[in-house]
Amino acid sequence: MRKIYALLLIFMVFAAACRKSDPIVKDPGTAPPVVVSQTGLLTTSTDFPTAEETFTLTFDAAKGNAALQNTSGDIYMYTGVITDKSTGAADWKYVKSASFSSPDPAAKMTAIGNGKFQISLSPRSFYGVPPGEKILQLVMLFRTGDGKIVGRNKDQSDLYLPIYEANQLGIRFKLPEFEPTFNPVPVISIQMVGEELSINAVASKAATLNLSLDGVGFASVTNAKEINGKVKVNAAGRHELKLSGTDGTTTIERSFTFLLNGSVETAELPAGAKEGVVFINGGKSAILTLYAPFKQYVYAIGDFNDWQSGLPYFMKRTPDGNKWWVQIDNLQAGKEYAYQYLVDGKLRIADPYTEKVIDPQYDKSIPSANYPSIMPYPTGKTSGILSVMQSSQPVYSWKYKNFKRPEKNDLVIYELHLRDFLKNANYNTLRDTLDYLTKLHVNAIELMPINEFEGNSSWGYNPSFYFAPDKYYGTKAALQQFIDECHGRGIAVIMDMVLNHSFGQSPMVQLYFDEASGKPATNSPWFNATPTHPFNVGYDFNHESPATKSFVKQVLKFWMDTYQVDGFRFDLSKGFTQKNSGTSDAGVSAWSAYDPGRVAIWKDYNSYIKTNNPDNFYVILEHFAADGEEKELSEEGMMFWNNVNASFNQATMGYQENSDFSRAFSGTHGFSRSENLVSYMESHDEERLMFKNLSYGNASGSYQVKNLTTALKRQEMAAAFFFSIPGPKMLWQFGELGYEVSIEQNGRTGEKPIHWDYLGQAARWSLRATYADLINYKTNNSIFKTGIPTYNLSGSAKYLKLTNTDNTVVVLGNFDVKEQVISIDFGQSGQWLEWPGGNTMSLTGNTYTKTLSPGEYHIYSRKPLYLR
Predict the structure, then answer these.
(1) What is the model's pLDDT at position 71?
(2) Where does the record locate the signal sequence feature (predicted)?
(3) I need a labelling partner for 747 at 20 to 30 A (CA). Which of 11, 158, 421, 691 fits?
(4) What are the backbone dihedrals phi and psi of residue 364, each rounded to the nearest 5 degrees, phi first?
(5) 723 in the same domain as 702
(6) What is the DSSP secondary-structure string of 283-336?
C-alpha cells in the first residue's frame, strides 16, 4: 500500500534574519499581518489597513453561526486596540462599549444581507487613540445587543486585525490562510509527502518578493505587489517557509515552520494511564491521554516543548481508535506546566480533564487576593485556553475527617452565590464569614456553580471545564480549607453541578463542532446536535451515550474525593433525556411527562454515587417532572427541589388567590418520606419575596404591605410556617434579612448589590433573629421531622398542626390585610406554650378561636421546644 501521511501540522514562528546590504525589519504591523480568517469571519476592504485611513470591516455572522444567516437583529463590535503601550494580547485599550449589556451605538454594524455586517472606521479617531500612541492591532468580538457572542475564532479566542504604518513596506501571506488571533497560525492541508503546497503573498507597495522552502527559493518576482508559487514537500519532519520583500531600502522577512507527520502509531494505553494526566517516574514524566475518536492525529504542545510540535510529542492511538496518548519526559517535579492538544493540525484545545486553566482574556481581571501568582500566558506561542499540569502537588491534610453529615430531614440549606454575597468574592473571605451562618443555625451551604465557567462574573451555569474550580473564587487549597472549616462547624457543603449542558469554551464541544450549522457535530461522543428538550441552554449532553456516562461519573468521583463535598444539586436534571419533546405546547406537556429513559439514567448515576460515597450523600435534583417520576426516584434516596415561591409570595403580599402553599408537604407529591423534598420560598431563580411585597403588596386602610416594617413582619409569619413543615428546607442568601433587590436588576444573571448594611436595621435584624430561632427549633425537635400534619392553607387565615407521641405544635397566622377569625381544633385542652415570648395560653376545650389582626401569627406547643 502507498504510505499515506497525516494532515499537516503547523507551528508558527516569525523569524528575522540579517542581510549586509539592507537592514531587515519586522513587518510594520509588528504583529503578524492577517486580514482573512480561516472561517471567513472577518475581511477588510484593504489588504494593509492603517491607523489614519478609513476602511470597511466586514463580519460574516453566518460563518460562525448558520442560524444568523438571515438575521435581522442588531450586531455590535465589542472592540479595543493593542498599542505600543499595551502589555500583550489581553491588554485591550480604548474599548468601545462600557459592558456586554451596554453596547456602544458607534460600534453597531450595518446589515448587508446573507448574514454579513459591515462598519467603516478610521482607527485612531474611532477609538480615540492619541497621536503619539502607535496602534498595532484592533481586537474585537461580535455580539448581539443583549451580549450574546456571535463572532470569535474557533478556539473562542478574540479576533485581531493588524494595523500597518502608512507609506512603509508591508508583506503578508494570503495563502495559507490565517486565524486572526494575536499571533495567527496558518492553516495548511497537505495529505502526503510529495504533495504541492500553494502559496500566495502580497505587499503594500511594489517590491522584489521571494519565496523559499528550507532555504531553497522556488518563486521570485520583481517590481510586484503579489507573488504566487507552488512547492512540493518531499520529506516528513519540520520545514520552514519564508517570504521576503525589499523595496530597495528596506527588507522584510516573514516565515513560519510546519511539521509533516509520519504514520500514526497504534499502541495500548500504558498501565495506570487514564484520561487527563498521570505522573510517573517520581513526577518527572507524565502520560497525557485524550479521548478523541474519529480524529486523524494529535500533538501535545506546551511549556515542555516551547509550544513547538515535534515527532516526540506526536500522540499514539489506542487500538480501539478512541484515545490518544503520549509520554512527556524530563519534567521538573512540582513545577506547573501549561499545555494543550493540537488536533488535526487546526484545533488547539485545553485538556477536558485539567484541574486548572489559564485564560488569556479573563485571568487579567482576577484579583490577586483571590488567586495570587497566576501563570503568565505564553503570548505569541499559542492561542486559546490552556490546561495546567503539576506533579507532586501539596496534598491538603483534612482536619475533620470524620464529619457526620446532617440527616436529610434536618437539612437547612443556605444557597449562595459568592459574587453577590461578598465584596471580596473568594473562599477565604467566605470562610471568615462562617460565624454569621453558624449563628443562623443553617447546617448546609449550597454553592452556585464553582467549576470553570465562561468569563468571571457569571452565575456559573455556562460551564466549560468540570474538574477545575474557577480561579475567580480562589485556589484549590482555599476551597479545600473552606469545606474543611464548614465540616468543623457541622455544616455540609453541596455543590451545584451543571451537567445538562456545556458551552462553546468547552474543549469537548470544540472537538466535535459543525461550523456550518453552529451545532455539535453528529459524531460527537458527548453532545446532541439538537437539544432533546425545550428548555436547554448551551450544548446538550447526551446522557445515553457511554462516553457521557463515563465522563459524568469521573467528574462526580473527582469532587467527592478531592474536595470532600457532601452533595450535588444537579441543575436541570429533567434535561437528562433523549426523548425529544419539541417546543410546542404539546411538546412541553410531553417534556413534563414520565420518562423511563430519564429514570434509568438517574438511577444509574445515583447508584454510582452511593457506591463511591454511601454515607448519607445528598443527591438533589432540579427536576420538576411528573410526581410519579419524582416519587420513583425518591424511593432510591434522591431529593428534589420544590419551588413554593409563588404561593408563599401571594400570601406575603396579602392575596388569597393561589396562596395555598400545601405543595411544601411531601405527601402532596406522593412521597413516602418528607426527607426527599427540599422546599424553598426563594432561590437564585426566583423573584425576591420582599421585592414583590414592597412593589405589589395589598393594603387595607392604614395596613400597608408595601410598608417595609410590615412587609418584614409578614416574612416572619411566612417563615414560621415554612420551617415548621417537615422536610429539608433551603433559603436564598440574604432572605433572612429581607433582601428586596429584584432578580431582574442589572439583568437576571447580572451582578446585584451586596447588603450587609441590612444588619444595622432593627426590623431586618429582627427577621434574621426569627429565622435563626425557627431553624434552631426545626433541627432540635423531632416534632418537625416526625409530626403528622393537618392543615388548612387555602384561605387567608392559615394553620398547620403537627402531632407525634411526644408533642403537638400548632402554627397559625392571618395573611390577609384585614382581621380574620380563625377556629382550630387543637386536639387537647389545657396549658399551651406560646412562641415567641414563652407565654402560656390556657385552652378550656379542644377548639381555639381567635380574631387575628392582619399579619398576626402564633406558634403554640404542648411541651417546650428545645434550642441548641
Answers:
(1) 58
(2) 1-17
(3) 158
(4) -65, -25
(5) yes
(6) GTEEEEEEE-TT-S-EEEEEGGGTT---GGGBPEE-TTSSEEEEEE-SPPTT-E
